Amino acid sequence: MSKSKSPYTNWVREVLKSHFEGKSPLVPESEALNNKAGCFVSLHNPDGSLRGCIGTIMPTKSSLLEEIKANAVSAALHDPRFLPLSKEELEDLEISVDVLGDPEPVQAITQLDPKVYGVIVSAGSRRGVLLPDLPGVDKVEDQIHIAMQKAGIEPGTPISVERFKVKRYH
After folding, report:
1. How far apart are the first and last CA of the chain?
2. Cα–Cα distance, 163 to 148 (Å, whole number)
3. Fewest 10 Å CB contacts: which of 9, 28, 100, 161?
């Protein structure tokens, strides 16, 4: 099992291991986990391919600790793009946690950079989110297009765009 130096990714691994063993996870002693923030938990196979990713834009739980826990279980077991993770896959899984900063409205496309900012694209009740600094997403237009696709927003539909920064932990 690859051990990370990040309390965030170690917490994800502990949560998932405990889930498979039917136990309660041992809560880490990290002040950072007492904060509140939206976050995404991403799970990758050893070859780098995505295995699950679920997150929240804004905090929905009482602490970042609980936010990460809920998103870890959802990414592992409830990402509709994948079958539920098995206990055997956990050991070789690569884990990252993105802690989101507050979203801010964007007035012009020049305010975006797909390596620095994630985007939230909205049209009516539909919202699509794309994290920053993803492999193969190098242009703002691509980033917005992918977020629109995720939300089911048709090309040409008027949209509003917000940006956010993340702190990524591996």
Report:
1. 14
2. 14
3. 28
**Per-residue b/e over 67-89, b at no fewer than 16 CB within 10 Å?**
bbbbbbbbbbeebeeeeebeeeb
Contact 118, 129 (CB under 8 A): yes
The CA distances from residue 154 to 1, 124, 150, in Å, are 43, 12, 10
| β-sheet with 94-100: strand ranges across | 50-55, 39-44, 94-100, 166-169
Give the residue from 100, 82, 3, 101 showing the smallest Cα distance to 43.
Answer: 82
Q: Sorting pLDDT into bands at 50, 70 and 90, what band is 2?
A: very low
CB 130 within 8 A of CB 147: yes
pLDDT bracket for residue 4 (50, 70, 90): low
Side-chain-side CA neighbours of residue 132 (13 Å)? 20
Between CA 118 and CA 159 the distance in angstroms is 16
Instruction: Please tell me the distance from the alpha carbon of residue 103 to that of residue 109, in angstroms, as a whole number.
Output: 15
